[in-house]
């Protein structure tokens, strides 16, 4: 009897159990970034009893996935997001904590998304180094091919994904709770959040979103919800076979991928064109995916390439127009507040400065000194005047200590101490 049949016929009988310690560890990891949400606060009121109940449901097979919240984000591009209930997020963290170390051993080094020690900055620098190496320090010709998968998350075939996960877990995972994890993985992969969700916002928010980018219009056996940790990691796992195909079978030495965007670098343009056709066939036949027909880029390295929000050119890297426009949009959103006067805006000014500094912190890793100086001078001279101060090297925007709440509190305490000393002196 096949292992799949054994698992199905047993009705999910457990050969081992997930430990309560694992559930608590997943909870603490989950709440680290979601502690201020309404669902997290409600769960935390009685979290010990809730975690024990969740642990019992997971091991007995009674666990059911709850309702998600569906909404639309418009920046940087319009996307449909399904936010899982906090209770379900704990289960996602539990599953990933069990499997992620195995995934990491399977992934190639040049897969950059949702991985510890990697990310956008690592990916940009890696591609920059690969271009420099392939062109021998920008002295020889080489070409860059950039491809994109059309509607990636909505096109993932759940049957293919689960079969791949089942075979991988069965072979690589040897803990006693293997069948509990397999059951949770199956629930997560085949769950359709659009059947039972709460719409946040207005239905008109979906206007302008192409049907092929929405789970409400996708096939029942396709699509993972954007917004879940498991979706991000499972999507990475889904495309790992593409990474292996490009680097091992096509033998493309210079390659990198971030989610569904990937770059191939080679000295021969014909090799890249042939690779594109083979990749298209591989995606269609093996993963039921298709390349985006309009997002095709093949140029000499001197023309540069856009990748993960950056423009990579010889010896320099700039940020993309989308990131720059988002920052300017954030700055100009303060204009209506500034019209009401400085005192009314001080409470939100600290949050605004933190948001601007997050952009500046990202930008300072690239060749953006002139742009950062321009933005800071714009803030200082046009909007904030005397209540702001510029830091050296154009790396940070700060509110003058005289106006920030912490500075006002310190001055108040200082005056109180001075007053008490004066009263003691008079006595």
Structure summary:
53% of the residues lie in helices and 14% in strands.
Structure description:
The protein has helices spanning 3-9, 20-34, 38-44, 47-60, 86-106, 120-134, 152-155, 158-172, 178-190, 229-238, 240-249, 269-287, 321-332, 335-338, 342-363, 369-384, 405-426; strands at 68-73, 79-83, 143-149, 197-199, 254-258, 261-266, 291-300, 305-307, 310-313, 316-319, 388-390, 397-399. It is of the alpha+beta class. Helix 5 runs parallel beside helix 10. It is globular. The N and C termini lie far apart (95 Å).
Please give a handful of descriptors for the protein shown.
17 helices; disordered N terminus; three-stranded mixed β-sheet; four-stranded antiparallel β-sheet; 427 residues; alpha+beta
Strand tally: 12
Instruction: Output mean pLDDT.
Output: 85
SSE succession: HHHHEEHHEHHHEHHEEHEEEEHHHHEEH
Main β sheet profile: 4 strands, antiparallel
* Rg value: 26 Å
The fraction of residues assigned to DSSP E strands is 5-15%
Layout of SSEs?
Layout: H1 3-9, H2 20-34, H3 38-44, H4 47-60, E1 68-73, E2 79-83, H5 86-106, H6 120-134, E3 143-149, H7 152-155, H8 158-172, H9 178-190, E4 197-199, H10 229-238, H11 240-249, E5 254-258, E6 261-266, H12 269-287, E7 291-300, E8 305-307, E9 310-313, E10 316-319, H13 321-332, H14 335-338, H15 342-363, H16 369-384, E11 388-390, E12 397-399, H17 405-426
Parallel strand pairs: 1-4
Antiparallel strand pairs: 1-2, 3-6, 3-7, 5-6, 8-9, 9-10, 11-12
Helix pairs in contact: 2-4, 2-5, 5-9, 5-10, 8-9, 13-15
